[in-house]
Amino acid sequence: MTPTKRSSYHHGDLRRAVLDAALGVIAAEGPGALSLRDLARRAGVSHAAPAHHFKDRAGLLTALATEGYDLLAEALAAAPELRERGVRYVRFAVAHPAHFQVMFQPELLRADDPDLLAAKERASAELRAGVADLADVPDPRAAGIAAWSLAHGFATLLLTRNVREALGDRDPEDYFRELAGLLFTDRLPPEERP
To answer: How far is the C-alpha of 72 from the C-alpha of 89, rounded, in Å?
Structure first.
C-alpha cells in the first residue's frame, strides 16, 4: 500500500527522528556533513519541518550537545570515585561518538542557550565531584582539569583509533584505569588504591 502524500508527512516524534538521523550522519561523516534539508529527507518529512523544532543547524547541534551533556552527567553520577568516573567518561564517548564530537566544538553551538548551559553545568559538577575525594590536592581545579584531560584525551585517541597498537587486545577501560593509576594513585584515598 502506497502512503498518501498527507500520511507520508505525518511523524509521531519528528524531533527525535531528526536528532537520531543527525547522530547517524555525524557518526558517519562528521558534523560538517549535516544539513536540515537532508535530515528532513531522511525522516520523510517536508524540508521545513526540522526548522520548526530547531530553527537552524546551530539549533540542532545545540540540542544534540545538550542531550550529550545530560547523558554524560548521568553516566558520571553512577561512578563511585575518580578513576571510575574517568572510565565512565571513556565509555560515554565510545557509546555516543556523535554526541562527543559535537559537545566540544563550541563554534558549532549556541553558546548562550540556557538548556545547554544547564546541561554543561550538571556534567561539570559530576566531574568536579570525582576530584573531591583526592587527598592532599593543593589546587583541586588543576587536578580536575588534569583528570578531565586524561579521560578526554584517551577517549579522543580511542575514537580516532590512535591507541590501537598500544592497546593490543587489552580492554580499553582496563587500560584507562592503568593510565589513571599512573597519575592519581598517590592522591586516591587508601581504600581506592590498587
So the answer is: 7
